[in-house]
Automatic annotation (TrEMBL):
<keyword id="KW-0032">Aminotransferase</keyword>
<feature type="binding site">
    <location>
        <position position="352"/>
    </location>
    <ligand>
        <name>substrate</name>
    </ligand>
</feature>
<dbReference type="GO" id="GO:0019265">
    <property type="term" value="P:glycine biosynthetic process, by transamination of glyoxylate"/>
</dbReference>
<dbReference type="InterPro" id="IPR015421">
    <property type="entry name" value="PyrdxlP-dep_Trfase_major"/>
</dbReference>
<comment type="similarity">
    <text>Belongs to the class-V pyridoxal-phosphate-dependent aminotransferase family.</text>
</comment>
<dbReference type="InterPro" id="IPR000192">
    <property type="entry name" value="Aminotrans_V_dom"/>
</dbReference>
<protein>
    <submittedName>
        <fullName>Aminotransferase class V-fold PLP-dependent enzyme</fullName>
    </submittedName>
</protein>
<feature type="modified residue" description="N6-(pyridoxal phosphate)lysine">
    <location>
        <position position="204"/>
    </location>
</feature>
<dbReference type="InterPro" id="IPR015422">
    <property type="entry name" value="PyrdxlP-dep_Trfase_small"/>
</dbReference>
<dbReference type="InterPro" id="IPR015424">
    <property type="entry name" value="PyrdxlP-dep_Trfase"/>
</dbReference>
<dbReference type="GO" id="GO:0004760">
    <property type="term" value="F:L-serine-pyruvate transaminase activity"/>
</dbReference>
<keyword id="KW-0663">Pyridoxal phosphate</keyword>
<dbReference type="GO" id="GO:0008453">
    <property type="term" value="F:alanine-glyoxylate transaminase activity"/>
</dbReference>
<dbReference type="Pfam" id="PF00266">
    <property type="entry name" value="Aminotran_5"/>
</dbReference>
<feature type="domain" description="Aminotransferase class V">
    <location>
        <begin position="50"/>
        <end position="268"/>
    </location>
</feature>
<keyword id="KW-0808">Transferase</keyword>
<dbReference type="InterPro" id="IPR024169">
    <property type="entry name" value="SP_NH2Trfase/AEP_transaminase"/>
</dbReference>
Amino acid sequence: TLDFHPTGRHFLQIPGPSPVPDRILRAMSLPTIDHRGPEFGVLGLRVIQGIQQIFQTKQPVIIYPASGTGAWEAALANTLSPGDHVLMYETGHFATLWQKMATRLGVKTEFLGLPGVEGWRRGVQAHLIEERLKADKEHSIKAVCVVHNETSTGATSNILAVRRAIDAAKHPALLMVDTISGLASAEYKHDEWGVDVTVSGSQKGLMLPPGISFNAVSPKAIEASKHAKLPKAFWAWDEIIEMNKGGYWPYTPNTNLLYGLAEACDMLLDPTFGGLQGTFARHQRWAEGVRSAVKAWGLEIQCVEAASYSPVLTGVIMPEGVDADAVRKLIYERFDLSLGTGLGKVKGRMFRIGHLGDCNDLTLMAALSGCEMGLKLAGVKLAGSGVAAAMEYFAGHPVQLPMKK
Ligand code: PLP
């Protein structure tokens, strides 16, 4: 009982999985090859070198045939022992899920943050981490875990500020960061920011289907993994790092997704389109255009800190009494447009517009049109036309490619 005709493209406007470009779909359609053969080693080395550039690291990046949740577990299982004390920070639903996972694995978690939903409207407050670490005189805290781009709210945290907070406290804790929805969309520097383990996934900025995920590691994290006592076998870094030297894995890797990953790295790093810096600039621009629409509608953005606005997604709060999921359902059924649901503490209060990966001005204009039509049909009073505001923004802010300068 859907109202749309089954023609044209579905508008997958959730903050991941993001639409997979045809170029990547074609690359993945090649025949699966022998994962122990010589051709595979070439592919393996190519994707490892490509993904290192995306993480901006020279250190090993482990690729798992798993969703992001698997890579979360890998980060914890490789570095920690049962009963270890870990400081985690509540930015939203995904930070909460990671904290629950750590607890289930037998780690003692301390969940820092602002009360109620206050913390769900901002990035990590690094000074709170610094204060807490300074009070930990015996260095009982073994790791600090934060989410870089909180997909449930649309707030991006300043990871360098967290690094500096740990350093200011002269604390030896490992820094572990989830940038599952930030990588290849928001600026991220694994080495320069001194991150020990970075967790990411395939289905967001990398424009791939779900199914592979990553741990970028530091020498300090590798050292910790030699003494860490949480059980680990499939997730253990040591054998994978060893076999990756030749471009192979100790088990059967996700060959066709690796074809896609090689293609995605080529696309994202292509200097013709500004390379990684061009990728970050594109996302900032799309985000600004989408926010101009939300502001023109007179609706509130979930993130209240302009410095933490996410380049990946925008959370839109519904007026009191409007069920955000009912609006989403109407938009899906009428216009074949998927928007992200409110998660956890903000369920029913807001929806999320993804503006990541394989987008352009016109796909975003179409998505905003779907939102505006749906909001009106749902009886939401709008202050003005968000579509008109976004058109003004995009038309008035041409893409600045390095080659055009
Ligand atoms: N962390 C963040 C920030 C996410 O956005 C997601 C998924 O959306 C996850 C973790 C979980 O990843 P997955 O669903 O791939 O297991």
